[in-house]
Specification:
276 residues, alpha/beta, 7-stranded mixed beta sheet, 8 helices, 27% helix, 19% strand
């Protein structure tokens, strides 16, 4: 189930909690991807708020929004960099993207395996993708006051198993959103405090989101012959196959027939006879 783009935009750009979430996730991603110069960076789902730091530094930035969610113009006041796409059919050539950020895209997709296959297709060899999903054990997944309360939440083990099954190698991972998922002023004022406490203690139940970086796996093709030759090739089909020579010579009679003398050391049908 996808949230409407209107609701997502209202949460991230018009609420204090949404701006706090945006800031926390941007800082988490920046720790792993501090530089995107000369790279093509793509966001899928509702990743536009997290793509902002890459504007002006990346070679190209593009925000892909699924049709079931809807699309909005982004960034405001500048040339549009967002487009509406089918979840599993992106208008990008294979192996053309260096970095992908997936936010509010995997947990709401009805065919996550097909989505991962499409991400694998467009990633360049060795390209990396950052997944941001609701934490199954956290409080955020149990409340529908934020977009992280919708869709299919994941545990770290479930997400990594899904990625490995679709030819991705999970690597760096982190937890984010340690603040309480409430719009009340008291909880908003303590957001940074809870963030420092949560990161220091690593409490899984306090984290609202899991952030996992995965790398595209490309297997080398097998070398050499795949199947051994089990029988000689029948090049001269229709002709008798030569018989192996024996170690002992046959007894030759003193009175060899005229026909045997005529053919020398071979019989009329072409079988070799070892010399006496």
């Amino acid at each position: 189930m996808h949230l409407d783009v209107v609701d997502l935009r209202a949460f991230y750009y018009r609420t204090k909690l949404g701006r706090a979430v945006q800031r926390d996730l941007q800082e988490t991603i920046a720790k792993r991807w501090p530089d995107s110069r000369q790279m093509q960076v793509v966001g899928f789902g509702f990743a536009a708020p997290l793509l902002r730091p890459h504007l002006g530094t990346a070679r190209r930035v593009l925000s892909l929004m699924p049709a079931a969610q809807g699309v909005m113009r982004w960034p405001p006041g500048d040339a549009n960099l967002s487009t509406l796409v089918e979840e599993t059919q992106w208008p990008l050539p294979g192996g053309s993207v260096d970095r992908i950020i997936v936010a509010h895209g995997l947990e709401t997709c009805e065919a996550p395996e097909a989505l991962l296959d499409e991400i694998w297709r467009v990633l360049a060899p060795g390209g990396k993708v950052m997944f941001i999903v609701p934490n199954r054990a956290g409080f955020w997944a149990r409340r529908d006051t934020t977009p992280f309360g919708y869709g299919r939440p994941y545990s770290m083990g479930q997400l990594e198993a899904l990625l490995r099954a679709r030819r991705f190698q999970p690597g760096w991972h982190a937890k984010a959103l340690y603040m309480w998922p409430s719009h009340r002023a008291f909880w908003l004022r303590t957001a940074r405090l809870f963030g420092r406490i949560g990161r220091r203690l690593g409490l899984r139940i306090m984290a609202g989101a899991l952030v996992v970086e995965a790398t595209k796996q490309v297997y080398a093709p097998p070398s050499g012959l795949r199947d051994a030759v089990r029988a000689p090739l029948d090049v001269l089909q229709g002709l008798a196959r030569p018989r192996p020579a024996t170690n002992r010579a046959p007894n030759r009679t003193r009175g060899a027939s005229t026909q045997e003398q005529r053919f020398g050391n071979s019989t009329p049908n072409g079988e070799d006879i070892p010399p006496a």
